[in-house]
Amino acid sequence: MRAAALTAALAVLAPAAPAAAADRFAGQVTDALRTPVRKLAAGPSGRAVADLVFLDRERAGTTYRTCVVRRAARGARGARDARGIRGARGARAVRTCFKATSGAAGAATVTPLRFKRGRYVVRWMVAGEVVARWRFAVV
């Protein structure tokens, strides 16, 4: 009887987990004015400065991992390289990951970075699960 009740309770809660993560966490790429952007203009050096902003609305001190993937500029759309990353045929997309810890609950954690021209995907992960993602381009 208890096992059946527990199974029923877990079945009800399981589909809600991704939605709960979406409500709890947020990640975006912003410009210097903290405006969320999908396209950034490169400067004379061919690079743009952007801020990776992560937010945990419920807890302080959340350890998270951020991965930035620079997709290859040429090739068939949807083609993947040897590691399974989308980009040009045979080309290797550039992937950089780092760990960080959030500040106070509800306070944004900002990581400024410089990006070369190209298309990027940023993913924020907590406990191995992707909780936020953002696509943008530097032109």
Automatic annotation (TrEMBL):
UniProt keyword Signal present: yes
Keyword vocabulary terms for this entry: Signal
Signal peptide positions (record): 1-21
Protein's UniProt keywords contain Signal: yes
Protein name as it appears in the record: Uncharacterized protein
Origin species: Conexibacter arvalis
Phylogenetic lineage: Bacteria, Bacillati, Actinomycetota, Thermoleophilia, Solirubrobacterales
